Amino acid sequence: MLLTEHRADRVVLYNISWQQFEKLLVDLGESRATRVAYDDGMLEIMTPLPEHEYYKEIIGDIIKDTAEVLELDYECYGSSTWKRELKKAGIEPDNCFYFQNEALIRGKLKFDLNQNPPPDLALEIDVISKSLDRFPIYARLGVPEIWCYDSGEIKIYQLQGEKYFQRETSLVFPNLKIQQIPSLIERYHMVGRGVFRQAIREWVRGQTS
Q1: Which residue in 138, 130, 125 sits closest to 181, CA to CA?
Q2: pLDDT tens by residue, 16-41
Q3: Other CB atoms within 10 Å distance of the CB of residue 22
Q4: SS3 labels along the chain
Q5: Count of CB atoms situated within 10 Å of the CB of 107
Q6: pLDDT tens digits for 91-112?
């Protein structure tokens, strides 16, 4: 086990076996602030900062409010651990959702990605760039769409083959201009969360009416 990088908010380790990764997950437990990503022997352990958590929560609320306005069934699994030993890949997204495959996993509390579909949408907040490239991990897990928030922008990436390509339109919300979300957050960031969520609902109705 070799420590390759150590910053205030993360450490990166090389030469970590799958068995060591699994043991680390058990040792860390479920009630923790840290999040992990594993890519064929490389392991990143990150402690999110308050700014990171703010955008994770507010964009997550936007996704939920949008789904409810559009009357879409969905399920949110937060920063759950998704992993496949055969692919030597594991990740804990900042947030994740089922939409297209919600009916297939409805009521499930335990998952096996060898049998169950991965989340339809993953959210990554890159307020401070992560050390480990997460796209190859998500690709091997088969997550079809990722939203990345970074420096006041949201970019949509969709899986095609084994790689992600940037797209203008979301598979989940094809009629919405997702790129407008950061400007909405900035416009309403000094109001209460209730007022903000009502504004988001009005924005969704305005684009879909």
Answers
A1: 125
A2: 999 999 999 999 887 778 999 999 99
A3: 14
A4: CEEEEEECCEEEEECCCHHHHHHHHHHHCCCCCCEEEEECCEEEEECCCHHHHHHHHHHHHHHHHHHHHCCCCCEECCCCCEEECCCCEEECCCEEEECCCHHHHCCCCCCCCCCCCCCCEEEEECCCCCCCCCHHHHHHHCCCEEEEEECCEEEEEEEECCEEEEECCCCCCCCCCHHHHHHHHHHHCCCCHHHHHHHHHHHHHHHHC
A5: 5
A6: 999 999 999 999 999 999 999 9
Better pLDDT: 93 or 3: 93
What is the longest distance spanned by two Cα atoms in the chain?
56
- Whole-angstrom Cα distance, residue 49 to residue 143? 25
pTM to 2 decimal places: 0.93
* Those residues with Cβ within 8 angstroms of residue 116's Cβ, 6 or more apart along the chain or in another chain: 104, 105, 108
Q: Which residue has the tokens 């209730």?
A: 194
- One-letter amino acid identity for 75? E
Q: What would the two tokens of residue 24 be?
A: 């680390």
What confidence tier does 168 reach under pLDDT thresholds 50, 70, 90? very high
Tell me how far the alpha carbon of residue 51 is from its chain's centroid.
16
In residues, how long is the chain? 209
Which residue, chain included where needed, has tokens 């790689």?
A: 163
Sign of CA dihedral 10, 90, 119, 177: positive
